[in-house]
User: Fold this.
Amino acid sequence: MTQTHLAIILQTTPPANDFMDVIVLAILSVVVIILAGMTGRVNMGFQVPGFPRPLSSERKEILRKHFPFYKQLTPNRRKRFEQKVQYFIHVKEFIPRQIPKVTEEMKVLISACAVQLTFGYPKVFLSHFKRILVYPDNYYSTINQTYHKGEVNPRLRAIVLSWKAFVAGYFNSKDGRNLGLHEMAHALRLENLITNAEFNFLDEEVLQHWQFLADQEMANIANGNSTMFRDYAATNPDEFFSVAVENFFERPKKFKSLMPNLYAILVLLLKQDPINPV
Assistant:
């Protein structure tokens, strides 16, 4: 090889540093694209193993038509809501009971209900409860030999719902009765106590303040002096919390007007305010 040929080769071969820069840039580009797809910012047309797809246009349409909480959110918060709904659907097993299958509408709206309650906690998905059992109507429990509209069973890691009662809860959104929110509130309280990745997320000091005010209101209900909650709320602290959650989302202005301190504590506890959802 002549010196002239060697000089030409040296001039046309890219420096090692430049070559490595190209490789690093290419790797970073691939990582960014994958992360964008995993977070739902870009629909890549395929699914990354272990991660859900972005919420489909069909599922978004279900939310737009049937879920008022979603419709009042800002565009950025809608995106967050969609991501949580999709992940909830992805990680739960929806099991039909006395119906042929759990439909897309059922999956989306039940998941949206759970996300509505946990929206202030981006990393809380009620992970202990792996199964969502859906009945068409009230169902008979062989355990306590009575009919139920819904229940939460931590031993079976299941949330059980009557679809008819679930729909009725959102159809009349101003009466302070919502089966879905009621049962999800039970699951939330239990999730906070069960040792797992989502353990102990509710602020202990706020919980203590909540219980102090709740005990006072339960006494008012027992004495017939409550103008906000139905009598069932006085059954025990767990039922009081669930009934309070129903009213928190369905009648927030009345709740705040009649019980400003209790309402303010629930805002802190759930890290959201239905009156000012943005």
Summary: The chain has twelve helices and six strands. The longest strand covers residues 131-135. Residues 6-10, 31-49 have pLDDT under 50 and may be disordered. The CA atoms of residues 55 and 82 lie 6 Å apart.
